[in-house]
Amino acid sequence: MDLSQNDSLHLLDNYYKNGTGQQIDTITLKRWFYPTVAAFAFIGLTENTVSVMALWFIPHRPWAPFHYLLLYLAVADWLLLAVCFVPALASVIGMAGDGQGEAQITCAVTVISDLSCYLILPPLMATTGLVVNQYVSVVKALSYSTFMTKRRTFTSIFVPCVLVTAAYLTFHGITCAASPKSSCMEHFEQSKYFLAREYFLACAIITLSVFNVIVYILIFAKAHEVTLRPVTGSPVSSQNKLATTVALLLGTVLLFWIPGTLTSIFYIIGNQNPGHFDQDMEFSLNTLQLASNIMFFFNPIVDPFIYGLRLREVREGYRLLFRKFKSWWVGDEKDFLTHRLSSSAGNGKVFDDVVTVNGAVVREISHMDMSQEI
């Protein structure tokens, strides 16, 4: 979700307190914003729940680094959507119980809403890990297994989680130290905390976005070089698959990450320059902020389609998952186990990975090396 998710759920009620004194009605905005957020979050939660289960049901062992990173992305998307869904649903219920459509924002809702701002970073970091993994598999295919070890993969997953947790605790710890006697709502209403949080998250997202775009361009250039050197016996569609996937992921970065970052910058400008925007401009920027919040939900919603449709190992996981559901429904557990064992046959060998390096063809038989699949 956007950097200002907490603002959208809480500060929206007080956004114009320090203006010219003319109160702009925000009930209409809230009436469509909260139900829309709840609906999109629920759709994304359902999708990513199925995706996590499908990734877990992939039978081939050992899992490749790409698989761990992909599972990390699915879990991070699920967690972000869950934390966004709770305050949105609470706001919808609150408005439904109020005759005027007003939602009473409680401390618990504010805390969860604030947490969602930080939880946007793990999915972006997981995507960055997938980008780096793909870069190594394309540019340095011969040394891929040496460089992308299981230990380094787990480190790349664990360290970002620690950094996000440390940032969250640090910002709130400093705020509590500055105002030790403030209540819960007073703690979150301090503009210095919001400004520091927005600076941190804006810088982090801009840095990750720029890094991903640069690496994507390098991958695309290498993929284009591969397509210009056809390999005898290798289908053209297989050679173009990597370039197409990279183009889709690059479009996801540009379409879903940048708008939310821009609205965060507008938020910073508005807080540093009170009265700089007139009431109409403030209302327009706030509406833009809410719209970019909605756009952020398309990222975790689209992610399962990107890797679910393009990676056959993930598709196999979906088939096993649906077969498992069917076995639970009709009681045919034996049929599921037979299919799972047949899928795992061949001592874990799944497919031949064809990697083109400087015009040469290196054929490796790996354990579910999905990084070469895309």
From TrEMBL:
It is a multi-pass membrane protein. Its main location: membrane. One of its GO terms (molecular function) is G protein-coupled receptor activity. PROSITE patterns: G_PROTEIN_RECEP_F1_2. SUPFAM superfamilies: Family A G protein-coupled receptor-like (SSF81321). The chain crosses the membrane at residues 32-58, 70-97, 103-132, 153-171, 199-221, 242-270, 290-309. Keywords: Cell membrane, G-protein coupled receptor, Membrane, Receptor, Transducer, Transmembrane, Transmembrane helix. Gene3D superfamilies: Rhodopsin 7-helix transmembrane proteins. InterPro entries: GPCR_Rhodpsn, GPCR_Rhodpsn_7TM, TAAR. It is found in: Cell membrane. CDD domains: 7tm_classA_rhodopsin-like (cd00637). GO terms for cellular component: plasma membrane. Residues 47-307 form the G-protein coupled receptors family 1 profile domain. It holds the Pfam family 7tm_1. This is Adrenocorticotropic hormone receptor-like.
